[in-house]
Write a structure and sequence with these properties.
Number of helices of chain A: 17
Number of domains of chain A: 3
Helix content of chain B: 25-40%
Strand content of chain B: 15-25%
CATH class of the largest domain in chain A: Alpha Beta
Distance between the termini of chain A: 76 Å
Radius of gyration of chain A: 23 Å
CATH architecture of the largest domain in chain A: 3-Layer(aba) Sandwich
Structural class of chain A: alpha/beta
Largest sheet of chain A: 5 strands, mixed
Oligomer: heterodimer
Largest sheet of chain B: 7 strands, mixed
Structural class of chain B: alpha/beta
Largest interface: A-B, 43 and 54 residues
Strand content of chain A: 5-15%
Order of helices and strands of chain A: HHHHEHHEHEHEHHEEEEHEEEEHEHHHHH
Shape of chain A: globular
CATH topology of the largest domain in chain A: Rossmann fold
């Protein structure tokens, strides 16, 4: 069956579409009839005939790594539910897509919600969940409405509810829960707290690992929207066949969300690792803007460490180690990790030489200072100080020592907080200072070095 | 074989120590290096690990030289073989940097701050060696307004370091959920309620937040965290039977503030607003400061010797003219064990009569009686601590969050953790929203409901036959009784749908360990004692006796109501619950006291009034009880005490009862004397004088010793140790009690030789041998039978958190600003029928009399039921209560009063002068 896309929305020839197969299709709508015409829910039917362990087995065999940012193997995560567990198990779809530079999940939610529901139903069957939630960020109000409608359609057709598709004891209800506009709700334990009706302070780990003590202190699996959609394709292709897509340990396809200084920013679903950074820029995105040169790339959402044009990286290729430039790096999990950053959520931000790195840093710090939940002291106080110092750098009101202070603030947040937001907010600063120290310092004024730091506190310090 | 140490130990900076199960890194380091060695801002011993400030960061490695990881010590579980580095350069720098960040947004007005010298931020800053702040002045929160709206609680959030300790204290300790964090990141701030003041929020002023706050961001008007005090004295609260330990800070002879000790087994750093803040009555201008003697019909100040001489003359004369039985004493559950012991000794030895009773008569006498009948011991079978081990909590006729706040909050916390909670109460009390089952019965029908519960347990086959056969007797008769029940009739009587009763029965009976608590809603009924025995039936038939997390546990109303009965302030039993009319006991008492002791059972309080009115009783001595205001049927009580020839009252304040006295002796409060109190879980705890007695007053024990000496009895001067030693010689379950041996935590009786206490009773066998089942069919209260036709509403009474009994003490503290009057709760449906609106003045009238108060429309009561508190005796609610009593113990039936109500109309429109033109 050939698929026709809306004019101007045709996939790039180098894309490999699984998840986004239906996005921008000419004859497509997000109703269940459309989804069923295209063979929808057949994989749920197939799953019902399988042992639970076999479904998880296929997902493990596929090598699927979570698409939310951390890249943790999905099948392994499912396997964490204790076999002796007697409590209810919950499945949560994390649709709180808030990482700056990332905009893939919203297209699935808007245009292909049944793909997600089918994936969730299969996942719920595999992990034994009878209740599942889709946690959607407040900023996606339409997505929430669409999902609610899709859930109702699926219920009416017997894909949700009691004894699904006639399988005795296979019950599943999915509820849409809307967030209230906080980035921290994308952190899985913060999300769980929010779902419980509380302030979304991330939980301390240990002891609150969701697979053991998650929602309502019951075992809980939290997966990203895209990850859950992949489950449908893994069942269709078989785990082993799916694993042939992409590269070993970096299997399947993933959606890159390219933004910034390129001719054609947008979403591109590629086989993981099949395109280099240069190919992404030049082939998929039509190259940089005329007359511009590449300055830096943030490869996996705003919190991933920046890569600077002209750098070289030592990357393992098979048994040998090769030195590569930025544009030669293949876009996969392991290569990004080897380059000192991460593939993260797939948000690729391209910056050309028109960008002032101090402004970039300040933009990122402003975001993270605004989104720190305020629970941990280093992050609550530190993220704001990172913003305040970078404000001064941008404004030309900083001294060179301020850059050092900024760096030290970042390092005292990194790894010293309850959740990974600490890393998320400090990595951009750490990487930008280490790679662009001179450019930042050029914004500063040495004569400001002796400016009194904080006369109030210095005076009062005597009483401590 | 030498055990491999690495499997049971971990190292701290190279030094090996044995680990304990449940250790976190911080607990482990605290234990071996002392609290504070690893600094922290957000961790507090009374709260769950939180992990937010990260100041407690340490480095951990699995090999001495292996790779190290920085973790927060407070929530990281300890494992054998770990190597902890608490002072590496890396963590020291980290801690310094964190504290530096905190200080960028802190006023640093340490020298003028109320907690200077006792501020955890200050201590931590000094510990980590802050030498300067590298950050320039910038946005901060130093201009936040102070909150001084509340009589007790204060806040100055410019000093807040966002550690959330207060929020966690409010959630985890009190369970009130008043405080929360609002906004995020740098804008995160503590709010009260929906961002209002302490006064307008639903705060219950327990002060847990103030005590938990590491700075002075949240504090109280007494500045309880300041180092102003020159001394701290540990003593026991006198506001209820929980027996909270208090740390009282004093300077000279002034009480500055009170905190709850962290290490107290009873209250774990928690107490309520009465214990923590309601102490200002101690030096209130209304305190009696001189004995008063009635001269020419008026009470006039006199010296102690004049007062004593007057007493000796009159009591000697009455004894000579009318015999010792013409004298009676009422002791006080507010006083110490030693004082209660002396009081009964004074009456028994001094007058050769058993006319001695205490206010337990009007509250828990049915508990003592009923539990003795069933088990052999009239006291709680278990400890409150057992809430940790129980799988089901049943609360019958008690409102613990108001009456026993610390126990109430513990029950709430367990319910929040998912332990099923069954509430049997005519009202929707504060615990109901947290409960699994609420059986909202009609007041006065406890027996009907509990019989039905027993029936459904039996019907479901959830009885513990082995326990019944081995440990109990009279089962067959009881079972026959259950079979004879008419469920339709019972359901009509108590008004709770039978399915609900059945579900609760199955919940209680199928729990591995189920624990019952009861209060005055059980005892203050005409079938109070029978209800207690019916609760005992439930525990026995399900085998819920004799192990942690089970049992029958009365929530004692007053601080020492247990002790007053233990010490023999009962007309039928002497010190140690020995029956006075048993010949061997009688001999024992006569030998012990070397005096003639009566072997006739004496008068109970209501009988004393009858005897006074009949002219048989000529003199009474009342210690610390305002019977006019608190006993039922006020006019009857007044008539009785007016007919006495001679009345002595020992009191803190002039009370309506003292108005009738011939001699009033000014006593000292619990903060001014030493002795022991026994709490509701049989824990004998030391009360230590915090300040010297107010000039002109004397501790009750001293008064009693002095009068005994003047009456010619051989009684040494009062010392708590001395009297306790005497008690230990006569009260069997105090055998091993010594002042020093009681320790700071107190000891639960029976106390064996060597001072060893007993946490759980009836482990292998009941005190009486076999536990005895008693079957009682429901009987309607005579009050309802006689008066329901004419007075169709049922009035029931209870108490609130903020006040204590008739308010003699609490109304002379800041609590009076929080709650200013008693209100009558009435269901909106009834109110509509009677044309009553919220806050309308209403008239409540019964067969005895009438009272007036304001109405409060509420669905907490069902239609037909009215509810009020009795803390403002000027309302004289006891004018309407009846003289109906528990058949076995004469405990008054406060909880069921047939009344009618009507709105008190504003002056008629016609009486307002008409407008003229």
């Amino acid at each position: 069956m050939s698929i026709h896309y809306k004019p101007g929305k045709e996939p790039h020839p180098r894309e490999h579409r699984l998840i986004f197969k239906n996005i921008d299709r000419a004859d497509w709508d997000n109703g269940i009839d459309c989804y069923l015409r295209d063979g929808g829910y057949a994989m749920l039917q197939k799953a019902i005939g399988m042992e639970k362990a076999a479904i998880t087995g296929e997902v493990k065999a596929s090598g699927l790594r979570g698409r939310g940012g951390a890249g943790f193997p999905t099948g392994v995560k499912w396997g964490f539910i204790s076999p002796t567990n007697t409590k209810p198990v919950y499945l949560i779809c994390n649709a709180d897509e808030s990482e700056p530079g990332t905009f893939k999940d919203r297209y699935i939610l808007h245009q292909d919600p049944h793909q997600l529901i089918e994936g969730m139903a299969i996942a719920a069957l595999a992990v034994g969940a009878k209740v599942a939630y889709i946690y959607i960020r407040e900023e996606f109000p339409h997505a929430a409405t669409i999902c609610e409608k899709a859930i109702e359609e699926a219920r009416q057709r017997g894909f949700l509810g009691k004894n699904i598709l006639g399988k005795e004891g296979f019950d599943l209800e999915i509820f849409v829960h809307r967030g209230a506009g906080a980035y921290i709700c994308g952190e899985e334990t913060g999300l769980i707290e929010s779902l419980e009706g509380k302030r979304p302070y991330p939980r301390i780990k240990p002891p609150y690992f969701p697979a053991a003590l998650g929602l309502y202190m019951c075992p809980t699996i939290v997966n990203n929207v895209e990850s859950l959609c992949h489950v449908v394709h893994i069942l269709r292709m078989g785990g082993a066949e799916y694993a042939k897509l992409g590269k070993p340990n970096n299997t399947g396809t993933r959606i890159l969300c390219v933004s910034g200084d390129v001719q054609k920013p947008g979403y591109y679903e590629i086989q993981v690792g099949h395109l280099t950074m240069g190919e992404v820029i030049n082939d998929l995105c039509g190259g940089l803007k005329p007359g511009r040169t590449l300055k830096a790339i943030i490869p996996g959402g705003s919190s991933s460490k920046i890569l600077k044009a002209g750098e070289t990286y030592k990357i393992k290729r098979g048994a040998e180690v090769v030195e590569m430039g930025l544009e030669e790096l293949p876009m996969d999990f392991d290569t990004m990790a080897a380059a000192g950053t991460m593939a993260g959520s797939g948000g690729v931000i391209i910056m050309d030489d028109s960008r002032d790195i101090a402004w970039v840093l300040n933009n990122l710090n402003t975001f993270y200072a605004h989104e720190s939940c305020g629970q941990c002291t280093p992050c609550r106080e530190g993220s704001l100080w990172m913003k305040k110092i970078s404000d001064r750098i941008v404004a030309g009101q900083a001294s060179p020592e301020d850059v050092t202070t900024l760096e030290s603030v970042a390092y005292q947040i990194d790894g010293k907080t309850i959740c990974a937001f600490g890393e998320a907010c400090s990595w951009p600063t750490e990487a930008i200072i280490s790679k662009f120290r001179d450019e930042l310092t050029s914004h500063t004024r040495p004569e400001l070095a002796d400016t009194p730091k904080n006369p109030v506190t210095e005076k009062a310090m005597a009483s401590l | 074989m030498v055990q491999d140490l690495s499997t049971i130990s971990a190292t701290i900076d190279g030094e090996s120590h044995v680990i304990e199960s449940g250790d976190t890194l911080l607990k482990f380091v605290d234990r071996h290096r002392g609290r504070g060695h690893v600094p922290t801002l957000c961790d507090a011993p009374q709260l769950a690990p939180y992990g937010a400030c990260r100041v407690c960061s340490v480095e951990v490695a699995l090999q001495p030289d292996g790779p190290r990881r920085v973790v927060a010590a407070c929530h990281t579980p300890l494992a054998a073989g770990m190597h902890i580095f608490t002072e590496s350069a890396k963590v020291q720098k980290l801690r310094r940097n964190i504290v530096e960040l905190v200080l960028t947004d802190h006023p640093l007005d340490c020298l003028t701050c109320e907690v200077n010298g006792n501020c955890e931020l200050q201590t931590v800053a000094a510990k980590v060696g802050i030498r300067g702040v590298r950050y320039p002045a910038g946005a901060n929160h130093l201009d936040r307004a102070k909150d001084q709206s509340h009589p007790y609680m204060t806040s100055d959030l410019s000093k807040c370091i966002n550690c959330s300790r207060c929020v966690r204290a409010c959630d985890e300790i009190q369970g009130q959920f008043v405080l929360s964090m609002h906004g995020r990141g740098f804008n995160a701030r503590i709010i009260k309620g929906l961002d209002t003041s302490f006064e307008k929020s639903p705060c219950v002023s327990c002060g847990a937040c103030a005590q938990a706050c590491p700075t002075s961001a949240i504090s109280d008007v007494f500045q309880s965290k300041s180092i102003e005090a020159s001394r701290k004295t540990r003593t026991v609260c006198t506001y209820c039977g929980v027996g909270c330990n208090l740390n009282v800070a004093t300077k000279g002879n002034e009480i500055l503030s009170i905190q709850a000790p962290l290490d107290s087994e009873v209250n774990h750093a928690h107490t309520c607003l009465k214990g923590r803040y309601a102490f200002k009555f101690v030096k209130h201008r209304d305190r009696l400061r001189s004995p008063l003697v009635r001269v020419n019909g008026r009470l006039q100040p006199a010296t102690w010797e004049e007062a004593y001489a007057h007493i000796v003359e009159n009591l000697t004369r009455i004894k000579a003219d009318h015999g010792g039985h013409a004298v009676a004493g009422i002791s006080s559950a507010r006083c110490t064990n030693e004082e209660n012991y002396l009081m009964q000794k004074f009456i028994r030895v001094g007058f050769g009569t058993n006319n001695i009773d205490a206010c337990a008569r009007v509250c828990h006498s049915p508990t003592a009686w009923g539990m003795q009948k069933a088990f052999g011991t009239g006291a709680a079978t278990n400890s409150v601590e057992d809430l940790q081990y129980t799988n089901c909590i049943m609360v019958i006729g008690a409102n613990p969050t108001e009456g026993h706040p610390v126990t109430g909050s513990k029950i709430k916390q367990r319910a929040l953790k998912g332990v099923p909670l069954i509430i049997i109460d005519p009202r929707e009390i504060e615990l109901v929203p947290f409960a699994t089952h609420h059986l909202q019965l009609r007041p006065g029908t406890n027996v009907a409901l509990l019989d039905m519960l027993a029936y459904y347990i039996w019907e479901a086959g959830l009885t513990d036959q082995e326990f019944i056969t081995k440990r109990c007797e009279n089962w067959a008769e009881f079972e026959a009784g259950l079979k004879s029940l008419d469920l339709d009739a019972l359901e009509r009587i108590h008004g709770v749908p039978r399915e609900k009763v059945k579900a609760a029965a199955i919940e209680y009976a199928s729990a591995e360990n189920a624990m019952a608590f009861h209060g005055l809603g059980v005892t203050e009924h005409s079938h109070g004692s029978k209800t207690v025995m019916t609760i005992a039936n439930l525990a026995m038939m399900t085998g819920n006796i004799g192990r942690p997390g089970v049992g029958v546990n009365p929530l004692r109303g007053q601080n020492n109501v247990q002790g007053a009965a233990d010490m023999g302030c009962q007309p039928h039993q002497g010190a140690g619950y020995l029956q006075v009319n048993d010949p061997s006991n009688h001999l024992l008492y006569e030998q012990f006291y070397g005096a003639h002791i009566s072997n006739e059972i004496g008068l109970k309080i209501p009988q004393m009034y009858e005897a006074a009115l009949a002219g048989h009783l000529k003199a009474m001595w009342i210690v610390g009880e305002d019977v006019v205001q608190t006993d039922p049927n006020t006019e009857h009580v007044k008539a009785a005490i007016s007919s006495l020839e001679f009345l002595v009252v020992q009191e803190l304040f002039m009370t309506p009862t003292a108005e009738y006295a011939d001699v009033v002796l000014p006593a000292s409060s619990f903060l001014e004397k030493s002795g022991t109190f026994t709490n509701g879980e049989r824990r004998v705890q030391r009360v230590n004088a915090v300040i010297a007695p107010l000039a002109g007053t004397k501790p009750d024990g001293q008064i009693l010793c002095e009068i005994m000496q003047r009456m010619g009895l051989s009684q040494p001067d009062y010392t708590p140790e001395g009297v306790l030693a005497e008690i230990a010689r006569i009260v069997p379950f105090f055998k091993g009690a010594t002042w020093d041996g009681l320790t700071e935590q107190g000891t639960q009786w029976p106390i064996q030789e060597g001072g060893i206490g007993t946490e759980i009773l009836h482990i292998d066998a009941f005190k009486r041998g076999l536990g005895k089942f008693h079957f009682f069919p429901f009987q309607e209260s005579k009050e309802i039978e006689k008066h329901h036709q004419e007075f169709p509403f049922i009035l029931t009474t209870g108490r609130i958190l903020e006040h204590y009994n008739c308010g003699t003490m609490t109304r002379r503290t800041g609590n009076a600003q929080i709650v200013t009057e008693d209100l009558l709760a009435i269901h909106p449906q009834d109110a509509a029928m009677k044309n009553i609106e919220d806050q309308d003045q209403v008239r409540i009238f019964s067969a005895r009399g009438e009272v007036r108060m304001k109405a409060r429309l509420s669905t907490e009561v069902q239609p037909g039921i009215l509810y009020t508190t009795f803390h403002f005796p000027e309302n004289l609610v006891n004018v309407v209560t009846s003289s109906e009593c528990d058949e076995d113990t004469l405990c008054p039936e406060y909880k069921v009063v047939a009344v009618d109500i009507e709105k008190v109309h504003a002056p008629d429109a016609t009486t307002i002068p008409a407008l003229t033109h």
